[in-house]
Design goal:
Helix 1 links the parallel strand 1 and strand 2. The protein has a domain of 204 residues: 3-Layer(aba) Sandwich (Rossmann fold). A 7-stranded parallel beta sheet has the order 3-2-1-4-5-6-7, with helices on both faces. The chain starts with a strand and ends in a 64-residue tail after the last helix. It contains 6 helices and 7 strands; from the N terminus they run βαββαβαβαβαβα. The longest helix is centred in the first third of the chain and has 29 residues.
């Protein structure tokens, strides 16, 4: 954020310049004697209350600002116009205080901040109230004009812009503070390769000017969000009723729904979540058994081998043919005993002795 130091930014021209620079994104350090009557407060408006005829306090305040901030872009001397008595009546102490406040302090502030202004190619702006009838005011006017003209010749190649704004007003028609603030806004916003070193502002006779109706601003720049007034909105349009055609039947109204019973926590039954059946893993042995084809099962009606020994002969039973059918109610015939085979005796042959 850019930093600007303003001398006399509590009321009048200095306050108008502070408000304009805050809109441009500056943080303002305003140096003045009294801020009790300042009708402005902002987070980027920092007041510093010191007596302006004391050079030592101005020096300490400027050093504190330079320790906190780095990018000093502008210093502005904007004192208020004061009535100065004649040179013969003014005491030496008042003369010294006047010259210190309006001539010495702007030069001292320029000397303390010239390195930062040179680094960031900033602005040095002085507002001088012209009054040719006062010798002290002529000394301040000519002294500041000559000082800044010579200073510009030394720093013109470094991008430093030094401008003297000469303001001449009358008691019945003072200068417009917003016009001075807009002039400084134009100098800072439209910075180019050329420099404006001197500007003169003169007041005009208010009787010769055409008075235009004052227009209140619709948007306040110092508030983050503000809607326009209701008078700027268009009037609300009345809805147009659409007649229903006769051939379309009217919509049927749905029957009234029965009141839903109240359900307490005790009566609510939350179903248990079913456990997902996860198949068991197949072992390598089972997988191998499934891959091998099964052998065909032999029929139970297999013929048994008949054992035939020399001692006995086994004759198998006669099988019934499948074609012969017997009634279901008939009793099966009784089994008949098998014929026994003849028994063969073995022994030594008898020898008949010959008688």
């Amino acid at each position: 954020m850019d930093i600007a130091i303003i001398i006399g930014g509590n009321t009048g021209t200095g306050l108008a310049i502070s408000r304009k620079l805050i809109i441009l994104g500056f943080r303002i350090y305003s140096i003045a004697e009294d801020f009790t009557k300042t009708p402005f407060a902002h987070k980027d408006f920092i007041p510093i209350s010191i007596p302006l005829n004391n050079s030592e306090k101005l020096h300490n305040a400027t050093i504190n600002i330079l320790e906190k901030e780095d990018n000093i872009l502008a210093i502005i001397n904007a004192p208020e116009k004061t009535t100065i008595p004649s040179f013969e009546i003014t005491s030496p102490f008042d003369m010294q205080s006047y010259l210190t406040q309006y001539l010495l302090n702007p030069i001292l502030l320029t000397r303390l901040t010239i390195d930062k202004i040179k680094q960031f190619q900033g602005f040095i702006i002085n507002i001088i109230h012209e009054n040719s009838s006062s010798p002290l005011n002529c000394a301040v006017q000519d002294g500041l004009s000559a000082f800044h003209t010579s200073l510009f010749e030394d720093y013109r190649n470094h991008g430093v812009n030094i401008t003297n704004i000469l303001v001449q007003s009358t008691p019945h028609n003072p200068i417009n503070c917003e016009m001075v603030a807009n002039t400084i806004d134009h100098l800072i916003r439209f910075k180019g390769g050329n420099a404006v070193t001197k500007i003169s502002l003169r007041s005009q006779d208010p009787q010769t000017l055409v008075k235009f109706p004052q227009i209140t601003p619709s948007i306040d720049e110092f508030k983050e969000i503000q809607l326009p007034p209701k008078s700027n909105f268009p009037p609300e349009q009345q809805p147009i009723s659409t007649p229903t055609p006769k051939h379309i039947p009217s919509k049927r109204t749905s029957p009234k729904s029965l009141p839903t019973p109240k359900v307490s926590r005790e009566t609510v039954v939350i179903p248990k979540e079913k456990k997902s059946r996860i198949p068991k893993p197949i072992t390598p042995r089972e997988a191998k058994a499934k891959s091998v084809p099964k052998k065909p099962v032999q029929s139970k009606l297999t013929a048994t081998a008949l054992k035939i020994s020399r001692d006995s002969i086994v004759i198998p039973r006669e099988r019934k043919s499948k074609e012969s059918t017997s009634p279901s109610n008939a009793k099966p015939p009784a089994p008949q005993p098998l014929p026994m085979p003849p028994r063969i005796r073995r022994g030594r042959p008898s020898i008949k002795k010959d008688l």
